[in-house]
Amino acid sequence: MNKELINVMEEIVTTLVTVSMLSPDYQTFCQCNKCRNDIMALSLNTLPSHYVTTEEGRKLVFEQLNTNENRKWINKRIISAIHTVGKYPKHD
Ligand SMILES: [Zn+2]
């Protein structure tokens, strides 16, 4: 099975952005797809990417990245992105 390049950081950020946007703290922020994608892009631009090419590699890197400690600082970047996008949404 030939897999494409996978950025494991992107997978983690996707999950964490979903969780953050569903939390009561961020219900006042726009939940549309455009804002969500902007939050993803903004967060990922400030985070190191971790590319893998195999499912084994994906599992290994996911376990290494998905720690309490890492999720804490990744969430900080995401929350900062949510606020930036909320302040300057690319729509009315
Ligand atoms: Zn929006």
Quick tags:
single chain; 92 residues; mainly alpha; 4% strand; binds zinc ion
Description:
This protein is mainly alpha-helical and 92 residues long. It has one domain (6-87). The protein is 64% helix and 4% strand. The protein has four helices and two strands. It has helices spanning 8-22, 33-45, 55-65, 68-87, and strands spanning 6-7, 51-52. A two-stranded antiparallel ribbon has the order 1-2. The chain is elongated, with a radius of gyration of 14 Å. The N and C termini lie far apart (44 Å). The model has no long low-confidence stretch (mean pLDDT 94). Bound molecules: zinc ion. Zinc ion (ZN) is lined by residues 30, 32, 34-35, 89, 91.
